[in-house]
């Protein structure tokens, strides 16, 4: 027989957004269920040092932070499910989801916190040197390259913003782009070209990241000219891949409004999606900030929005019954 779990607040995703929603939802008495997905704890479980999450004077470890967040959510009454949602029905309340285990989950409200994943170049050397000089987040890791030479790969808004951000830490930033024009907005391009700390490497693609294990890490990037085919080597300590992100929203396409880049659309200043009673928080609805603290912040907002939604819906039900 198919198992069914029902809750006032069903949360998809167990990164900082989902777990923060769970903490607030549990403390509001909504007994949330969190379906954790294939990456319990979310993206921060794939990193080591975290130095910008408030509350910790010393550097903390990403996996440890997420274990603590989960323990806190469970401590206040949230229930964790080791399952991944594969089917969604938001046409009526309670919303109905099916996990790949076959388990059915129903929620009077739904909080989507399925996050996003950085796109990578797909090179073996990139995989080997991730976290050892190769990163996909300048805001997260730029600080570790103070006074060192760094490069950013990409030509969109993210790449340009990351290059500009890195000039706070480094005098020598190279932006590597595979074409001779940028996709980024003109205003960002103007700021980029005006910045003396940034050098452009036009028409270049990465052949491989060069380096070894700790403490050496990344030492250089081998480049190929996309016009002439000529190979060259750029000596750097840090390489930031900024070629876009994939929000985890395929499941919701056709059910909930997404923007042109596939992120869940929310009403400005809230976490309300196009479906009343469905809320979205964290990287799945945020392509600008993409930080643990902003994910946690919008997770809190989603739980508060859901709680208010339920209070209004309950009030209406009572009022109708009294008529
Ligand atoms: P995520 O953390 O992406 O979590 C998404 C969750 O959704 C996961 O639990 C996943 O299993 C679940 N899920 C997905 N699909 C389904 C499904 N179908 N059913 C159920 N569950 C599902 N930020 C910082 O602030 N500081 C840092 O130092 C920092 N370092 C980083 C280092 C690395 C290597 C990376 C990749 C990111 C880093 N970030 C950092 C960014 C930060 O991790 C993210 O902004 C944050 O994790 C986003 O949280 P989230 O809860 O929105 O989503
Ligand atoms: P993007 O706009 O899709 O740009 C990706 C860049 O990476 C492109 O320049 C692309 O090159 C390059 N690229 C893709 N695959 C590559 C590969 N395999 N090898 C080398 N280069 C590769 O992604 P984004 O910059 O992350 O932006 C995503 C969305 O968020 C956009 O809509 C953007 O406007 C928005 N955003 C806005 C802001 C802001 O408003 N401040 C900030 C960040 C992001 P080509 O140009 O050759 O295709």
Walk me through what this model shows.
- By secondary structure, this protein is of the alpha/beta class.
- Helix content is 27%, strand content 27%.
- The chain has helices at residues 16-27, 62-75, 124-129, 138-141, 157-166, 186-194, 292-322, and strands spanning 4-12, 33-35, 49-50, 60-61, 79-81, 85-89, 95-99, 104-112, 116-118, 134-135, 149-153, 172-176, 198-201, 204-211, 218-225, 231-235, 238-241, 245-247, 278-280.
- Strands 1, 2, 5, 6, 7, 8 and 19 form a 7-stranded mixed sheet that branches.
- β1, α1 (16-27) and β2 (33-35) form a beta-alpha-beta unit.
- α1 (16-27) packs parallel to α2 (62-75), α1 (16-27) runs parallel beside α7 (292-322) and α5 packs parallel to α6 (186-194).
- The model has no long low-confidence stretch (mean pLDDT 95).
- Bound molecules: flavin-adenine dinucleotide (FAD) and NADP nicotinamide-adenine-dinucleotide phosphate.
Quick overview of this protein structure:
With 323 residues, the chain is an alpha/beta fold. The chain has helices at 16-27, 62-75, 124-129, 138-141, 157-166, 186-194, 292-322, and strands at residues 4-12, 33-35, 49-50, 60-61, 79-81, 85-89, 95-99, 104-112, 116-118, 134-135, 149-153, 172-176, 198-201, 204-211, 218-225, 231-235, 238-241, 245-247, 278-280.
């Amino acid at each position: 027989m198919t198992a069914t779990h029902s809750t006032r607040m069903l949360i998809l995703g167990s990164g900082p957004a989902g777990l923060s929603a769970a903490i607030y939802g549990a403390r509001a008495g909504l007994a949330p269920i969190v379906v954790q997905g294939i990456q319990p704890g979310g993206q921060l479980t794939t990193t080591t040092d975290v130095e910008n999450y408030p509350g910790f004077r010393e550097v903390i470890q990403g996996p440890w932070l997420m274990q603590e967040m989960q323990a806190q959510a469970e401590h206040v009454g949230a229930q964790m499910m080791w399952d991944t949602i594969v089917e969604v029905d938001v046409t009526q309340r309670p919303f109905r989801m099916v996990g790949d285990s076959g388990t059915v989950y129903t929620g009077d409200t739904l909080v989507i916190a399925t996050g996003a994943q950085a796109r990578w170049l797909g090179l073996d050397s990139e995989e080997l040197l991730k976290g050892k000089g190769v990163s996909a987040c300048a805001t997260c890791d730029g600080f570790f390259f103070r006074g060192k030479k760094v490069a950013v790969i990409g030509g969109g808004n993210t790449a340009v913003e990351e290059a500009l951000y890195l000039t706070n830490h480094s005098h020598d930033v190279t932006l590597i782009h595979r074409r001779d024009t940028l996709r980024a907005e003109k205003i960002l391009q103007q700021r980029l070209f005006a910045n003396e700390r940034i050098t452009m490497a036009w028409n270049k693609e990465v052949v491989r990241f060069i380096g070894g294990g700790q403490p050496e890490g990344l030492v250089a990037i081998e480049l190929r000219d996309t016009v002439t085919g000529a190979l060259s080597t750029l000596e750097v300590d840090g390489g930031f891949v900024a070629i876009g992100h994939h929000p985890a929203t395929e499941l919701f396409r056709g059910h909930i409004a997404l923007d042109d880049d596939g992120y869940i659309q929310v009403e400005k200043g809230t976490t309300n999606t196009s479906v009343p009673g469905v809320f979205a928080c964290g990287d799945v609805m945020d392509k600008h900030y993409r930080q643990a603290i902003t994910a946690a912040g919008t997770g809190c907002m989603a739980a508060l929005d859901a709680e208010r939604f339920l209070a209004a819906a309950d009030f209406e039900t009572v009022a109708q019954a009294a008529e």
